[in-house]
Amino acid sequence: MLSRARRLHPGLRRLLLPTTPASRAPPLPPYHPAAAQTSKPSPILFRRHLCSPPPPTPPPASQPPAVVSADLPAVSANSICPGCGIAMQSSDPALPGFFSRPSPKSADYRARLAPITADDTQISASLKAGHLREGLEPSPGAEPAVAAETVEDKVLVCARCHSLRHYGHVKHPDAERLLPDFDFVAAVGPRLASPSGARSLVLLLVDAADFDGSFPRAVARLVAAAGEAHHKDWKHGAPANLPRALLVVTKLDLLPTPSLSPDDVHAWAHARARAGAGADLRLAGVHLVSAARGWGVRDLLDHVRELTGARGNVWAVGARNVGKSTLLNAIARCSGVAGRPTLTEAPVPGTTLDVIKVDGVLGAQGKLFDTPGLLHGHQLTSRLTSEEMKLVQVRKEMRPRTYRIKTGQSIHIGGLVRLDVEDLTVGSIYVTVWASPLVPLHMGKTENAETMIKEHFGLQLQPPIGQERVKELGKWVRKQFKVSGSSWDTNSKDIAIAGLGWFGIGLKGEAVLGLWTYDGVDVLSRISLVHERASIFEEAGFTVSQIVSQADSMTNKLKGPKKTNKKKGSKASTGPIIAPEAAESASTVDA
Protein backbone atom coordinates (compact mmCIF):
# COMPACT_ATOMS: atom_id res chain seq x y z
CA MET A 1 0.00 0.00 0.00
CA LEU A 2 2.77 2.44 0.87
CA SER A 3 4.75 1.70 -2.28
CA ARG A 4 1.65 2.38 -4.35
CA ALA A 5 1.04 5.63 -2.53
CA ARG A 6 4.50 6.89 -3.41
CA ARG A 7 3.90 6.59 -7.16
CA LEU A 8 2.68 10.13 -7.59
CA HIS A 9 2.22 12.31 -10.60
CA PRO A 10 5.56 14.02 -11.48
CA GLY A 11 4.02 17.46 -11.04
CA LEU A 12 2.59 16.53 -7.66
CA ARG A 13 5.91 15.04 -6.59
CA ARG A 14 7.52 18.45 -7.09
CA LEU A 15 4.68 20.05 -5.16
CA LEU A 16 4.70 17.75 -2.16
CA LEU A 17 8.44 17.11 -1.72
CA PRO A 18 10.31 19.46 0.64
CA THR A 19 11.96 22.47 -0.90
CA THR A 20 15.67 22.53 -1.75
CA PRO A 21 17.94 23.50 1.20
CA ALA A 22 19.57 26.88 1.16
CA SER A 23 22.97 25.27 0.77
CA ARG A 24 21.90 23.85 -2.62
CA ALA A 25 20.34 27.04 -3.88
CA PRO A 26 21.55 28.19 -7.31
CA PRO A 27 24.43 30.68 -7.21
CA LEU A 28 23.82 34.39 -7.53
CA PRO A 29 24.56 36.10 -10.84
CA PRO A 30 27.84 38.03 -10.94
CA TYR A 31 27.72 41.67 -10.02
CA HIS A 32 28.70 44.27 -12.61
CA PRO A 33 29.25 47.73 -11.06
CA ALA A 34 29.37 49.51 -14.39
CA ALA A 35 26.09 48.10 -15.59
CA ALA A 36 24.37 48.78 -12.27
CA GLN A 37 24.96 52.51 -12.63
CA THR A 38 23.22 52.74 -16.00
CA SER A 39 20.23 50.50 -15.50
CA LYS A 40 17.56 49.76 -12.94
CA PRO A 41 15.95 46.38 -12.24
CA SER A 42 12.55 45.78 -13.72
CA PRO A 43 9.63 46.14 -11.29
CA ILE A 44 8.30 42.73 -12.29
CA LEU A 45 8.15 40.42 -9.23
CA PHE A 46 8.14 36.68 -9.78
CA ARG A 47 5.60 35.03 -7.49
CA ARG A 48 7.21 31.95 -6.05
CA HIS A 49 5.41 28.75 -6.98
CA LEU A 50 5.85 25.51 -5.08
CA CYS A 51 7.09 23.81 -8.25
CA SER A 52 9.82 26.41 -8.86
CA PRO A 53 13.24 26.36 -7.19
CA PRO A 54 13.72 28.55 -4.11
CA PRO A 55 14.68 32.15 -4.83
CA PRO A 56 18.34 33.08 -4.38
CA THR A 57 19.43 34.85 -1.24
CA PRO A 58 19.22 38.64 -1.73
CA PRO A 59 22.56 40.48 -1.88
CA PRO A 60 23.76 42.49 1.11
CA ALA A 61 22.40 45.97 1.60
CA SER A 62 25.77 47.54 0.82
CA GLN A 63 25.77 46.15 -2.74
CA PRO A 64 23.57 47.61 -5.46
CA PRO A 65 20.97 45.25 -7.01
CA ALA A 66 21.87 42.93 -9.85
CA VAL A 67 21.25 44.03 -13.42
CA VAL A 68 18.72 42.25 -15.64
CA SER A 69 20.46 41.55 -18.93
CA ALA A 70 18.66 41.91 -22.22
CA ASP A 71 19.94 38.57 -23.54
CA LEU A 72 18.61 36.21 -20.86
CA PRO A 73 18.35 32.49 -21.65
CA ALA A 74 15.03 30.75 -22.11
CA VAL A 75 13.08 29.91 -18.95
CA SER A 76 13.67 26.42 -17.66
CA ALA A 77 10.98 23.81 -17.19
CA ASN A 78 10.89 24.50 -13.46
CA SER A 79 9.49 28.01 -14.03
CA ILE A 80 5.75 27.71 -13.57
CA CYS A 81 3.08 30.19 -14.63
CA PRO A 82 1.31 31.32 -11.43
CA GLY A 83 -1.93 31.85 -13.37
CA CYS A 84 -2.48 28.40 -14.89
CA GLY A 85 0.40 26.18 -13.66
CA ILE A 86 1.94 25.41 -17.08
CA ALA A 87 5.72 25.24 -17.50
CA MET A 88 6.86 28.55 -19.00
CA GLN A 89 9.18 28.94 -21.98
CA SER A 90 10.26 31.90 -24.10
CA SER A 91 11.61 30.10 -27.17
CA ASP A 92 8.56 29.15 -29.29
CA PRO A 93 5.35 31.26 -29.38
CA ALA A 94 3.41 28.35 -30.90
CA LEU A 95 3.97 26.07 -27.90
CA PRO A 96 2.07 26.21 -24.57
CA GLY A 97 3.59 28.29 -21.80
CA PHE A 98 5.17 30.94 -24.02
CA PHE A 99 5.75 34.39 -22.52
CA SER A 100 7.57 37.55 -23.52
CA ARG A 101 10.29 38.80 -21.24
CA PRO A 102 9.90 42.41 -20.09
CA SER A 103 12.31 44.70 -21.86
CA PRO A 104 15.00 46.26 -19.63
CA LYS A 105 14.38 49.90 -18.76
CA SER A 106 16.83 52.67 -18.10
CA ALA A 107 17.26 54.20 -14.66
CA ASP A 108 15.40 57.39 -15.59
CA TYR A 109 12.39 55.86 -17.39
CA ARG A 110 10.16 57.24 -14.66
CA ALA A 111 11.60 60.71 -14.79
CA ARG A 112 8.99 63.28 -13.89
CA LEU A 113 8.07 66.25 -16.02
CA ALA A 114 9.63 69.66 -15.53
CA PRO A 115 8.83 71.06 -12.06
CA ILE A 116 6.06 73.59 -11.68
CA THR A 117 7.25 77.13 -11.16
CA ALA A 118 5.56 80.11 -9.59
CA ASP A 119 5.08 81.70 -13.03
CA ASP A 120 2.51 79.08 -14.05
CA THR A 121 -0.59 81.18 -13.45
CA GLN A 122 -3.04 78.60 -14.86
CA ILE A 123 -2.31 76.09 -12.11
CA SER A 124 -3.86 76.71 -8.72
CA ALA A 125 -1.81 77.13 -5.59
CA SER A 126 -3.14 73.93 -4.03
CA LEU A 127 -1.82 71.83 -6.91
CA LYS A 128 1.53 73.61 -6.73
CA ALA A 129 1.70 72.67 -3.07
CA GLY A 130 1.27 69.00 -3.96
CA HIS A 131 -2.44 68.47 -3.25
CA LEU A 132 -4.28 66.30 -5.76
CA ARG A 133 -7.65 67.96 -5.19
CA GLU A 134 -8.36 71.55 -4.48
CA GLY A 135 -9.90 72.46 -1.15
CA LEU A 136 -8.91 69.16 0.46
CA GLU A 137 -7.03 70.05 3.61
CA PRO A 138 -5.87 67.47 6.17
CA SER A 139 -7.86 67.35 9.37
CA PRO A 140 -6.18 68.62 12.56
CA GLY A 141 -4.10 65.94 14.22
CA ALA A 142 -4.06 63.64 11.19
CA GLU A 143 -0.81 62.16 10.00
CA PRO A 144 0.57 63.54 6.73
CA ALA A 145 -0.10 61.40 3.70
CA VAL A 146 2.76 59.39 2.29
CA ALA A 147 3.51 59.81 -1.38
CA ALA A 148 2.46 56.75 -3.33
CA GLU A 149 5.74 55.94 -5.02
CA THR A 150 5.41 52.16 -4.95
CA VAL A 151 3.97 50.52 -7.99
CA GLU A 152 1.51 47.67 -7.69
CA ASP A 153 3.28 44.34 -7.69
CA LYS A 154 3.12 42.70 -11.08
CA VAL A 155 3.13 38.99 -11.74
CA LEU A 156 4.71 37.49 -14.83
CA VAL A 157 2.30 35.04 -16.50
CA CYS A 158 2.28 33.19 -19.80
CA ALA A 159 0.84 34.71 -22.98
CA ARG A 160 -2.24 32.48 -22.72
CA CYS A 161 -3.12 33.77 -19.24
CA HIS A 162 -2.41 37.35 -20.31
CA SER A 163 -4.80 37.02 -23.24
CA LEU A 164 -7.50 35.41 -21.08
CA ARG A 165 -7.22 38.07 -18.39
CA HIS A 166 -7.32 41.08 -20.67
CA TYR A 167 -9.21 39.92 -23.77
CA GLY A 168 -11.26 36.90 -22.65
CA HIS A 169 -10.00 34.48 -25.30
CA VAL A 170 -7.00 32.27 -26.04
CA LYS A 171 -4.25 33.91 -28.08
CA HIS A 172 -3.16 30.76 -29.96
CA PRO A 173 -6.12 28.34 -30.32
CA ASP A 174 -3.97 25.84 -32.23
CA ALA A 175 -1.75 25.35 -29.18
CA GLU A 176 -4.73 24.15 -27.10
CA ARG A 177 -4.39 20.68 -28.65
CA LEU A 178 -0.86 20.42 -27.22
CA LEU A 179 -1.92 21.08 -23.63
CA PRO A 180 -1.39 18.17 -21.21
CA ASP A 181 -4.33 16.21 -19.83
CA PHE A 182 -4.82 15.88 -16.08
CA ASP A 183 -6.35 12.89 -14.32
CA PHE A 184 -7.06 13.68 -10.67
CA VAL A 185 -7.84 10.08 -9.74
CA ALA A 186 -4.54 8.79 -11.15
CA ALA A 187 -2.45 11.71 -9.88
CA VAL A 188 -3.84 12.36 -6.40
CA GLY A 189 -5.73 9.11 -5.82
CA PRO A 190 -2.76 7.17 -4.38
CA ARG A 191 -2.13 9.93 -1.86
CA LEU A 192 -5.77 9.93 -0.73
CA ALA A 193 -5.72 6.13 -0.46
CA SER A 194 -2.57 6.11 1.68
CA PRO A 195 -3.28 5.56 5.41
CA SER A 196 -0.38 7.80 6.43
CA GLY A 197 0.40 11.44 5.84
CA ALA A 198 -1.26 14.74 6.60
CA ARG A 199 -4.99 15.26 6.64
CA SER A 200 -6.64 15.44 3.24
CA LEU A 201 -9.69 17.52 2.48
CA VAL A 202 -11.34 17.52 -0.95
CA LEU A 203 -13.56 20.40 -1.99
CA LEU A 204 -16.13 18.98 -4.42
CA LEU A 205 -17.15 22.02 -6.45
CA VAL A 206 -20.37 21.96 -8.49
CA ASP A 207 -22.14 24.56 -10.60
CA ALA A 208 -25.53 25.58 -9.20
CA ALA A 209 -26.92 25.99 -12.73
CA ASP A 210 -25.64 22.52 -13.80
CA PHE A 211 -25.42 20.47 -10.62
CA ASP A 212 -25.62 16.92 -11.96
CA GLY A 213 -23.57 17.66 -15.07
CA SER A 214 -20.69 19.30 -13.18
CA PHE A 215 -20.65 17.00 -10.13
CA PRO A 216 -17.24 15.17 -9.98
CA ARG A 217 -18.57 11.65 -9.55
CA ALA A 218 -15.28 9.78 -9.95
CA VAL A 219 -13.51 11.89 -7.32
CA ALA A 220 -16.45 11.64 -4.92
CA ARG A 221 -16.48 7.85 -5.25
CA LEU A 222 -12.72 7.76 -4.69
CA VAL A 223 -13.08 9.72 -1.45
CA ALA A 224 -15.95 7.48 -0.34
CA ALA A 225 -13.96 4.29 -1.08
CA ALA A 226 -10.85 5.56 0.75
CA GLY A 227 -12.93 6.54 3.77
CA GLU A 228 -14.57 3.13 3.97
CA ALA A 229 -11.22 1.33 3.58
CA HIS A 230 -9.58 3.14 6.52
CA HIS A 231 -12.62 3.58 8.74
CA LYS A 232 -12.12 0.27 10.56
CA ASP A 233 -8.44 1.02 11.24
CA TRP A 234 -9.37 4.43 12.56
CA LYS A 235 -11.88 2.87 14.98
CA HIS A 236 -9.18 0.58 16.42
CA GLY A 237 -6.77 3.49 16.94
CA ALA A 238 -4.44 2.63 14.05
CA PRO A 239 -2.98 5.42 11.87
CA ALA A 240 -5.53 6.15 9.21
CA ASN A 241 -5.76 9.11 6.90
CA LEU A 242 -9.49 9.54 6.46
CA PRO A 243 -9.99 11.92 3.53
CA ARG A 244 -12.91 14.22 4.08
CA ALA A 245 -15.08 15.95 1.52
CA LEU A 246 -16.91 19.27 1.49
CA LEU A 247 -19.60 19.89 -1.10
CA VAL A 248 -19.32 23.47 -2.39
CA VAL A 249 -22.15 24.73 -4.62
CA THR A 250 -20.72 27.66 -6.59
CA LYS A 251 -22.40 30.44 -8.59
CA LEU A 252 -25.35 30.61 -6.23
CA ASP A 253 -26.16 34.08 -7.60
CA LEU A 254 -27.27 32.46 -10.90
CA LEU A 255 -30.29 30.84 -9.25
CA PRO A 256 -33.46 32.86 -8.52
CA THR A 257 -32.43 33.29 -4.90
CA PRO A 258 -35.50 35.26 -3.68
CA SER A 259 -37.71 32.23 -4.34
CA LEU A 260 -35.33 29.66 -2.82
CA SER A 261 -34.83 28.69 0.80
CA PRO A 262 -31.19 28.05 1.80
CA ASP A 263 -32.24 25.09 3.91
CA ASP A 264 -34.12 23.53 0.99
CA VAL A 265 -31.20 24.01 -1.40
CA HIS A 266 -28.83 22.60 1.24
CA ALA A 267 -30.90 19.43 1.65
CA TRP A 268 -31.48 19.12 -2.11
CA ALA A 269 -27.74 19.41 -2.90
CA HIS A 270 -26.84 16.83 -0.23
CA ALA A 271 -29.35 14.36 -1.67
CA ARG A 272 -28.16 14.88 -5.26
CA ALA A 273 -24.52 14.36 -4.21
CA ARG A 274 -25.33 11.03 -2.56
CA ALA A 275 -27.32 10.02 -5.63
CA GLY A 276 -24.33 10.75 -7.87
CA ALA A 277 -21.59 9.17 -5.72
CA GLY A 278 -23.46 6.53 -3.77
CA ALA A 279 -24.65 6.18 -0.20
CA ASP A 280 -21.08 5.60 1.05
CA LEU A 281 -20.17 9.25 0.51
CA ARG A 282 -19.93 11.00 3.87
CA LEU A 283 -19.87 14.75 3.49
CA ALA A 284 -18.34 16.89 6.21
CA GLY A 285 -20.63 19.73 5.17
CA VAL A 286 -22.39 21.56 2.35
CA HIS A 287 -21.64 25.20 1.51
CA LEU A 288 -23.59 27.49 -0.81
CA VAL A 289 -21.27 30.22 -2.09
CA SER A 290 -21.00 32.94 -4.69
CA ALA A 291 -17.46 34.10 -5.33
CA ALA A 292 -18.69 37.01 -7.47
CA ARG A 293 -20.72 38.47 -4.60
CA GLY A 294 -18.80 37.03 -1.65
CA TRP A 295 -21.68 34.93 -0.30
CA GLY A 296 -20.57 32.18 2.08
CA VAL A 297 -16.83 32.55 1.41
CA ARG A 298 -15.93 33.42 5.02
CA ASP A 299 -17.89 30.45 6.44
CA LEU A 300 -16.25 28.12 3.94
CA LEU A 301 -12.76 29.35 4.86
CA ASP A 302 -13.40 28.91 8.59
CA HIS A 303 -14.72 25.39 8.07
CA VAL A 304 -11.74 24.42 5.89
CA ARG A 305 -9.28 25.63 8.52
CA GLU A 306 -11.16 23.73 11.20
CA LEU A 307 -11.09 20.43 9.28
CA THR A 308 -7.51 20.55 8.00
CA GLY A 309 -5.73 21.78 11.10
CA ALA A 310 -2.26 23.26 10.88
CA ARG A 311 -0.70 20.82 8.37
CA GLY A 312 -3.51 19.57 6.14
CA ASN A 313 -3.77 19.37 2.35
CA VAL A 314 -6.82 20.82 0.61
CA TRP A 315 -7.66 19.95 -3.00
CA ALA A 316 -10.20 21.99 -4.97
CA VAL A 317 -11.74 19.67 -7.58
CA GLY A 318 -14.48 20.28 -10.12
CA ALA A 319 -15.49 20.24 -13.75
CA ARG A 320 -14.23 22.78 -16.24
CA ASN A 321 -15.61 26.29 -15.87
CA VAL A 322 -17.13 25.50 -12.48
CA GLY A 323 -15.36 28.48 -10.90
CA LYS A 324 -12.49 26.93 -8.92
CA SER A 325 -9.93 29.66 -9.57
CA THR A 326 -12.49 32.41 -8.96
CA LEU A 327 -13.48 30.86 -5.64
CA LEU A 328 -9.87 30.36 -4.49
CA ASN A 329 -9.05 33.97 -5.35
CA ALA A 330 -12.04 35.06 -3.27
CA ILE A 331 -10.85 32.86 -0.39
CA ALA A 332 -7.36 34.38 -0.65
CA ARG A 333 -8.81 37.89 -0.47
CA CYS A 334 -11.00 36.91 2.46
CA SER A 335 -8.04 35.43 4.36
CA GLY A 336 -6.06 38.67 4.08
CA VAL A 337 -3.28 37.44 1.78
CA ALA A 338 -0.98 40.30 0.87
CA GLY A 339 -1.13 41.37 -2.77
CA ARG A 340 -3.71 40.51 -5.36
CA PRO A 341 -4.58 36.87 -6.17
CA THR A 342 -2.73 35.49 -9.17
CA LEU A 343 -4.92 32.62 -10.41
CA THR A 344 -6.27 33.35 -13.87
CA GLU A 345 -10.05 33.83 -14.06
CA ALA A 346 -11.80 33.60 -17.42
CA PRO A 347 -15.13 32.30 -18.76
CA VAL A 348 -13.21 29.74 -20.83
CA PRO A 349 -13.19 26.03 -19.98
CA GLY A 350 -9.82 24.62 -18.95
CA THR A 351 -8.17 27.83 -17.73
CA THR A 352 -6.02 26.02 -15.12
CA LEU A 353 -3.60 23.56 -16.72
CA ASP A 354 -1.71 22.03 -13.77
CA VAL A 355 -1.77 21.86 -9.98
CA ILE A 356 -1.09 25.25 -8.36
CA LYS A 357 -0.47 25.92 -4.69
CA VAL A 358 -2.20 28.97 -3.22
CA ASP A 359 0.13 30.40 -0.58
CA GLY A 360 -0.76 32.11 2.67
CA VAL A 361 -4.36 30.93 3.06
CA LEU A 362 -4.00 28.01 5.50
CA GLY A 363 -0.94 29.17 7.38
CA ALA A 364 2.69 28.17 7.08
CA GLN A 365 2.19 24.38 7.06
CA GLY A 366 -1.21 24.02 5.38
CA LYS A 367 -1.42 23.60 1.61
CA LEU A 368 -4.29 24.66 -0.65
CA PHE A 369 -4.16 23.38 -4.24
CA ASP A 370 -6.03 24.46 -7.33
CA THR A 371 -6.40 21.62 -9.83
CA PRO A 372 -7.24 21.63 -13.56
CA GLY A 373 -10.87 21.29 -14.49
CA LEU A 374 -12.14 17.78 -15.10
CA LEU A 375 -13.36 17.06 -18.63
CA HIS A 376 -16.86 15.57 -18.52
CA GLY A 377 -17.72 14.03 -21.87
CA HIS A 378 -21.37 13.71 -20.87
CA GLN A 379 -21.79 17.50 -20.84
CA LEU A 380 -23.07 19.27 -23.96
CA THR A 381 -20.51 22.02 -23.42
CA SER A 382 -17.67 19.58 -24.12
CA ARG A 383 -18.79 19.43 -27.78
CA LEU A 384 -19.38 23.14 -28.43
CA THR A 385 -17.03 25.70 -29.93
CA SER A 386 -15.98 28.84 -28.09
CA GLU A 387 -18.62 30.95 -29.87
CA GLU A 388 -21.34 28.40 -29.08
CA MET A 389 -20.20 28.27 -25.47
CA LYS A 390 -20.88 32.00 -25.12
CA LEU A 391 -24.54 31.36 -25.93
CA VAL A 392 -24.96 28.43 -23.53
CA GLN A 393 -23.12 29.75 -20.47
CA VAL A 394 -25.33 31.32 -17.81
CA ARG A 395 -23.80 34.58 -16.58
CA LYS A 396 -26.79 36.32 -14.98
CA GLU A 397 -29.59 35.28 -12.68
CA MET A 398 -31.75 32.72 -14.46
CA ARG A 399 -35.30 33.66 -15.43
CA PRO A 400 -38.10 31.17 -16.09
CA ARG A 401 -39.70 30.76 -19.53
CA THR A 402 -42.93 28.79 -19.18
CA TYR A 403 -45.15 27.07 -21.77
CA ARG A 404 -48.56 25.45 -21.43
CA ILE A 405 -48.53 22.59 -23.90
CA LYS A 406 -50.70 19.61 -24.86
CA THR A 407 -50.20 16.18 -26.33
CA GLY A 408 -48.48 16.29 -29.71
CA GLN A 409 -46.53 19.48 -29.06
CA SER A 410 -42.77 19.97 -28.62
CA ILE A 411 -40.30 22.51 -27.22
CA HIS A 412 -36.84 23.11 -28.70
CA ILE A 413 -33.92 24.61 -26.77
CA GLY A 414 -31.81 25.85 -29.64
CA GLY A 415 -30.66 23.00 -31.84
CA LEU A 416 -29.55 20.97 -28.84
CA VAL A 417 -32.64 19.50 -27.14
CA ARG A 418 -36.28 18.76 -27.98
CA LEU A 419 -38.98 17.76 -25.47
CA ASP A 420 -42.07 15.95 -26.84
CA VAL A 421 -45.32 15.52 -24.92
CA GLU A 422 -46.38 12.02 -26.00
CA ASP A 423 -49.16 11.10 -23.59
CA LEU A 424 -51.11 12.85 -20.80
CA THR A 425 -53.80 11.86 -18.32
CA VAL A 426 -54.82 15.53 -18.14
CA GLY A 427 -55.52 18.17 -20.74
CA SER A 428 -52.19 20.03 -20.58
CA ILE A 429 -49.05 20.53 -18.50
CA TYR A 430 -46.74 23.42 -17.63
CA VAL A 431 -43.14 23.21 -18.85
CA THR A 432 -40.63 25.80 -17.59
CA VAL A 433 -37.28 26.14 -19.36
CA TRP A 434 -34.26 27.05 -17.19
CA ALA A 435 -31.35 27.83 -19.50
CA SER A 436 -29.30 30.73 -20.83
CA PRO A 437 -31.52 33.57 -22.12
CA LEU A 438 -29.31 33.82 -25.21
CA VAL A 439 -30.45 30.41 -26.47
CA PRO A 440 -33.65 30.76 -28.54
CA LEU A 441 -36.66 28.52 -27.93
CA HIS A 442 -39.44 27.20 -30.18
CA MET A 443 -42.77 25.58 -29.40
CA GLY A 444 -44.79 23.84 -32.11
CA LYS A 445 -46.28 20.56 -33.29
CA THR A 446 -44.26 17.37 -32.96
CA GLU A 447 -45.17 16.35 -36.51
CA ASN A 448 -43.06 19.27 -37.81
CA ALA A 449 -39.93 18.19 -35.91
CA GLU A 450 -38.10 16.86 -38.98
CA THR A 451 -38.74 20.10 -40.83
CA MET A 452 -37.32 22.06 -37.91
CA ILE A 453 -34.10 20.04 -38.05
CA LYS A 454 -33.64 20.50 -41.80
CA GLU A 455 -34.59 24.16 -42.11
CA HIS A 456 -33.88 25.83 -38.75
CA PHE A 457 -31.14 23.94 -36.90
CA GLY A 458 -27.99 26.06 -37.04
CA LEU A 459 -29.94 29.13 -38.24
CA GLN A 460 -32.87 30.24 -36.08
CA LEU A 461 -32.12 27.52 -33.52
CA GLN A 462 -28.57 28.05 -32.26
CA PRO A 463 -26.31 26.55 -31.09
CA PRO A 464 -25.00 24.84 -33.14
CA ILE A 465 -23.89 27.79 -35.26
CA GLY A 466 -24.20 26.77 -38.89
CA GLN A 467 -26.06 23.84 -40.44
CA GLU A 468 -22.80 21.96 -41.08
CA ARG A 469 -22.25 21.75 -37.30
CA VAL A 470 -25.42 19.70 -36.74
CA LYS A 471 -23.88 16.46 -37.98
CA GLU A 472 -20.63 17.13 -36.12
CA LEU A 473 -22.37 17.04 -32.73
CA GLY A 474 -23.38 13.40 -33.08
CA LYS A 475 -26.43 11.22 -33.50
CA TRP A 476 -29.90 12.47 -32.48
CA VAL A 477 -31.33 9.97 -29.93
CA ARG A 478 -34.47 9.77 -27.75
CA LYS A 479 -34.98 9.04 -24.06
CA GLN A 480 -38.37 8.46 -22.46
CA PHE A 481 -39.48 9.76 -19.06
CA LYS A 482 -42.64 9.09 -17.07
CA VAL A 483 -43.39 11.87 -14.61
CA SER A 484 -46.22 12.51 -12.18
CA GLY A 485 -47.26 15.42 -10.01
CA SER A 486 -49.91 16.44 -7.53
CA SER A 487 -50.15 20.22 -7.98
CA TRP A 488 -50.67 22.71 -10.79
CA ASP A 489 -49.08 25.55 -8.84
CA THR A 490 -45.48 24.32 -8.58
CA ASN A 491 -42.99 22.22 -10.52
CA SER A 492 -42.71 18.70 -9.16
CA LYS A 493 -40.06 17.16 -11.42
CA ASP A 494 -36.99 18.32 -13.37
CA ILE A 495 -35.51 16.79 -16.51
CA ALA A 496 -31.88 17.98 -16.46
CA ILE A 497 -29.56 18.09 -19.48
CA ALA A 498 -25.87 18.08 -18.53
CA GLY A 499 -24.16 21.28 -19.62
CA LEU A 500 -27.32 23.12 -20.70
CA GLY A 501 -30.05 23.45 -18.04
CA TRP A 502 -33.31 21.71 -17.23
CA PHE A 503 -37.05 21.49 -17.86
CA GLY A 504 -39.34 22.06 -14.86
CA ILE A 505 -42.54 19.98 -15.16
CA GLY A 506 -45.72 21.04 -13.35
CA LEU A 507 -48.85 18.88 -13.56
CA LYS A 508 -51.56 17.17 -11.55
CA GLY A 509 -51.54 13.72 -13.04
CA GLU A 510 -49.19 11.63 -15.16
CA ALA A 511 -47.31 12.28 -18.40
CA VAL A 512 -45.06 10.42 -20.82
CA LEU A 513 -42.34 12.67 -22.24
CA GLY A 514 -39.74 12.00 -24.92
CA LEU A 515 -36.49 13.97 -24.83
CA TRP A 516 -34.26 14.14 -27.92
CA THR A 517 -30.63 15.17 -27.76
CA TYR A 518 -27.23 14.06 -29.04
CA ASP A 519 -25.91 10.61 -28.20
CA GLY A 520 -23.73 10.51 -25.08
CA VAL A 521 -25.21 13.57 -23.36
CA ASP A 522 -26.33 12.80 -19.81
CA VAL A 523 -30.06 13.36 -19.20
CA LEU A 524 -31.84 12.46 -15.95
CA SER A 525 -35.00 13.04 -13.92
CA ARG A 526 -34.80 14.51 -10.42
CA ILE A 527 -36.79 16.30 -7.75
CA SER A 528 -37.46 19.87 -8.73
CA LEU A 529 -34.93 22.48 -7.57
CA VAL A 530 -36.93 25.64 -8.35
CA HIS A 531 -40.68 25.26 -7.92
CA GLU A 532 -41.81 28.56 -9.38
CA ARG A 533 -42.74 29.34 -12.98
CA ALA A 534 -43.17 32.49 -15.03
CA SER A 535 -46.25 34.63 -14.48
CA ILE A 536 -46.58 35.31 -18.22
CA PHE A 537 -46.49 32.30 -20.55
CA GLU A 538 -44.57 32.07 -23.80
CA GLU A 539 -46.46 31.85 -27.09
CA ALA A 540 -46.13 29.29 -29.86
CA GLY A 541 -43.33 29.75 -32.38
CA PHE A 542 -39.88 31.23 -31.89
CA THR A 543 -39.03 33.35 -28.89
CA VAL A 544 -37.95 36.94 -29.40
CA SER A 545 -34.20 36.70 -29.94
CA GLN A 546 -31.50 38.50 -31.86
CA ILE A 547 -30.36 35.18 -33.30
CA VAL A 548 -33.82 34.48 -34.72
CA SER A 549 -34.09 37.99 -36.18
CA GLN A 550 -30.72 37.78 -37.92
CA ALA A 551 -31.46 34.30 -39.28
CA ASP A 552 -34.86 35.40 -40.60
CA SER A 553 -33.32 38.43 -42.27
CA MET A 554 -30.64 36.33 -43.93
CA THR A 555 -33.17 33.72 -45.09
CA ASN A 556 -35.46 36.37 -46.58
CA LYS A 557 -32.57 37.92 -48.50
CA LEU A 558 -31.62 34.56 -49.98
CA LYS A 559 -35.10 33.30 -50.83
CA GLY A 560 -36.94 36.56 -51.56
CA PRO A 561 -37.15 38.02 -55.11
CA LYS A 562 -34.80 40.85 -55.92
CA LYS A 563 -36.40 44.31 -56.11
CA THR A 564 -35.58 46.23 -59.30
CA ASN A 565 -35.97 49.88 -60.13
CA LYS A 566 -39.11 50.45 -62.21
CA LYS A 567 -37.50 53.13 -64.42
CA LYS A 568 -34.48 50.98 -65.19
CA GLY A 569 -36.69 47.95 -65.68
CA SER A 570 -38.86 49.72 -68.27
CA LYS A 571 -35.84 50.84 -70.31
CA ALA A 572 -34.02 47.50 -70.18
CA SER A 573 -36.80 45.38 -71.70
CA THR A 574 -34.77 43.62 -74.34
CA GLY A 575 -33.59 40.74 -72.14
CA PRO A 576 -35.49 37.49 -71.61
CA ILE A 577 -38.23 37.40 -68.97
CA ILE A 578 -37.84 34.75 -66.29
CA ALA A 579 -40.96 33.15 -64.87
CA PRO A 580 -41.55 33.55 -61.12
CA GLU A 581 -41.37 29.76 -60.57
CA ALA A 582 -37.99 29.54 -62.27
CA ALA A 583 -36.60 32.49 -60.35
CA GLU A 584 -37.75 31.01 -57.11
CA SER A 585 -36.23 27.62 -57.86
CA ALA A 586 -32.95 29.21 -58.91
CA SER A 587 -32.58 31.01 -55.56
CA THR A 588 -33.61 28.10 -53.34
CA VAL A 589 -31.08 27.27 -50.63
CA ASP A 590 -30.32 23.60 -50.06
CA ALA A 591 -30.88 23.02 -46.36
Explain what this protein looks like in three dimensions:
Helix 9 links the parallel strand 6 and strand 7. A six-stranded mixed sheet has the order 7-6-5-8-10-9, with helices on both faces. It has a six-stranded antiparallel sheet with strand order 16-19-13-12-15-21, with no helix packed on it. It is built from 17 helices and 21 strands. Helix 6 (184-193) runs parallel beside helix 8 and helix 10 (297-308) crosses helix 11 (324-335). It starts with a helix and ends in a 5-residue tail after the last helix. The protein has 591 residues and is α+β, with helices and mostly antiparallel strands. It has helices at residues 2-5, 10-16, 33-38, 125-128, 159-167, 184-193, 211-214, 217-235, 262-277, 297-308, 324-335, 386-392, 449-455, 468-472, 546-559, 566-571, 580-586; strands spanning 39-40, 44-45, 105-106, 154-155, 200-207, 244-250, 283-288, 313-318, 356-358, 367-370, 401-405, 409-413, 417-424, 429-434, 441-445, 476-486, 493-497, 501-506, 508-518, 523-527, 541-542. The longest helix has 19 residues, at 217-235. The chain is globular, with a radius of gyration of 30 Å.
Notable characteristics:
alpha+beta, 17 helices, globular, disordered N terminus, disordered C terminus, GTP-bd, Mito_lipid_metab_GTPase, G domain-containing protein
Tell me the span between the first and last alpha carbons: 60 Å
What is the spatial order of strands in the main beta sheet?
7-6-5-8-10-9
Provide the residue-averaged pLDDT: 75
How much is the radius of gyration in Å?
30 Å
What is the approximate shape? globular
Helix proportion of residues, in percent? 25-40%
Helix run count: 17
Going by helix content, strand content and strand pairing, the class is alpha+beta
The largest β sheet comes out as: 6 strands, mixed
The unreliable regions are 1-7, 18-55, 59-77, 132-153, 564-591
Strand content: 15-25%
Tally of extended strands? Answer: 21
InterPro entries: GTP-bd, Mito_lipid_metab_GTPase, NOA1/YqeH-like_C, P-loop_NTPase
Protein name: G domain-containing protein
Organism: Urochloa decumbens
Pfam family, one: MMR_HSR1
